[in-house]
């Protein structure tokens, strides 16, 4: 992000942090490193884009409740940079439409994009789910995003990454919508017994070395039942269907990046405990469909690498890293 965009991000970040209260022009200008006389001109594009910014004649500037719009400056301004493994912070690109955000991030990763690069789209034309399934991505209704992580990031082990990201997504939902979804192994978010979101983690290696991981997250935000295809309608839900409220996708994106940053910094043992406490199927008898066939057993928990511990029919305990789980 250029320094002008960084300055705009600081302005928007301060206005969002003030939650509708007036912020002094002098404080805004000082923080962004611009002249107070420049403020109006700098905020004009955001006003034009639909952010309800008011420049009060008597002094301050305030931001009302924004509609469901977003821009990279808002996201960066609300997720201030900390000294993390991917400093200088998140680098979001927001697209109106793309085939799959995972594909965009993978391509940019091959071209050298850095960890913390994020692509979110309002619509995906070829959204992908796990196990070759599709991911319904109608315009403006869900959050569809992908994040680039590289070696040097904590938890780059794919198993740990799955656990850490699903816990982060559940925490983001709770921070925004006030309820904690359950997690169905390996990485489905479930509310009221229906699927609220899912994660698709794709890795690329150079020889034996991990080159990068793309963390794709899809969350149903504003859908009503009719927005889902007949095939998934009885299986899916959205934040709107669960709470009756319409959330801004940008608010969820900000909550998600903040949760993820906290989790990437936290010891994996803590995250594992939170995952186990949120798990839908822990302790239950389950069927696991894996590439090597079907297994039955009791889901016991996770090992330190994030793999599922399953007690099989004859009492033996095995670890499972991929598959599809159903309670029996
Ligand atoms: C699943 O539950 O099967 C995983 C769904 C993952 C969907 C997200 S949406 C953003 C990113 N881009 C994709 O094409 N898929 C992931």
Give a quick rundown of the structure.
Helix content is 32%, strand content 26%. The chain has 328 residues and is α+β, with helices and mostly antiparallel strands.
Q: What labels would you give this structure?
A:
328 residues, Arc Repressor Mutant, subunit A, BirA Bifunctional Protein, domain 2, SH3 type barrels, seven-stranded mixed sheet, 26% strand
Give a description of the structure.
The protein has 328 residues and is an alpha+beta fold. The protein folds into 3 domains: 4-63, Winged helix-like DNA-binding domain superfamily/Winged helix DNA-binding domain (Arc Repressor Mutant, subunit A, Orthogonal Bundle); 72-278, BirA Bifunctional Protein, domain 2; 285-327, SH3 type barrels. The protein has 9 helices and 14 strands. The chain has helices at residues 3-17, 25-32, 39-49, 72-78, 101-110, 158-177, 239-243, 249-265, 268-278, and strands at 53-55, 61-63, 91-95, 117-121, 142-149, 182-184, 188-191, 194-206, 209-220, 285-290, 293-302, 308-312, 317-320, 324-327. The strands form 3 sheets. It has a 7-stranded mixed β-sheet, sandwiched between helices. Strands 13-12-11-10-14 form a 5-stranded antiparallel β-sheet, with no helix packed on it. Strand 10 and strand 11 (293-302) form a beta hairpin. Helix 1 runs antiparallel to helix 2, helix 1 (3-17) packs across helix 4 and helix 6 (158-177) packs across helix 9 (268-278). The protein is elongated, with a radius of gyration of 21 Å. The mean pLDDT is 92. Bound molecules: biotin (BTN). Biotin is lined by residues 100-102, 124, 127-130, 133, 135, 144-146, 188, 198-200, 216-218.
């Amino acid at each position: 992000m250029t320094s002008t965009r960084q300055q705009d991000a600081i302005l928007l970040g301060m206005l969002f942090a003030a939650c509708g209260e007036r912020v002094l022009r002098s404080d805004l200008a000082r923080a962004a490193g611009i002249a107070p006389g420049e403020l109006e001109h700098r905020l004009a594009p955001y006003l034009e884009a639909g952010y309800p910014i008011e420049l009060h004649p008597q002094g301050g500037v305030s931001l009302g409740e924004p509609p469901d719009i977003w821009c990279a400056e808002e996201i960066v301004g609300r997720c201030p940079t900390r000294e993390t493994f991917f400093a200088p912070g998140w680098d979001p690109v927001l697209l109106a439409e793309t085939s799959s955000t995972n594909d965009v991030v993978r391509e940019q990763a091959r071209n050298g994009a850095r960890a913390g690069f994020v692509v979110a789209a309002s619509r995906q034309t070829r959204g992908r789910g796990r196990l070759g399934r599709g991911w319904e991505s109608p315009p403006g209704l869900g959050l569809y995003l992908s994040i680039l992580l590289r070696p040097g990031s904590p938890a780059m082990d794919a198993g740990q990454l799955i656990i850490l990201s699903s816990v982060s997504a559940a925490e983001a939902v709770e921070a925004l919508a006030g309820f904690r979804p359950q997690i169905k192994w390996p990485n489905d978010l479930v509310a009221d017994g229906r699927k609220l979101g899912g994660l698709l983690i794709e890795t690329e290696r150079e020889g034996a070395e991990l080159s990068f991981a793309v963390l794709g997250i899809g969350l149903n935000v504003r859908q009503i039942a009719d927005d889902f295809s007949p095939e998934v309608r009885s299986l899916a839900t959205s934040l709107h269907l669960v709470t009756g409220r319409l959330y801004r996708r940008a608010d969820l994106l900000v909550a998600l990046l903040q949760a993820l940053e906290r989790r990437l910094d936290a010891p994996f043992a803590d995250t594992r405990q939170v995952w186990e406490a949120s798990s839908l199927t822990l302790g239950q008898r389950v069927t696991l469909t894996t590439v090597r066939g079907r297994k039955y057993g009791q889901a016991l928990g996770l090992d330190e690498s994030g793999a599922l511990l399953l007690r099989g029919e004859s009492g033996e305990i095995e670890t499972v890293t991929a598959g599809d789980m159903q309670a029996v």
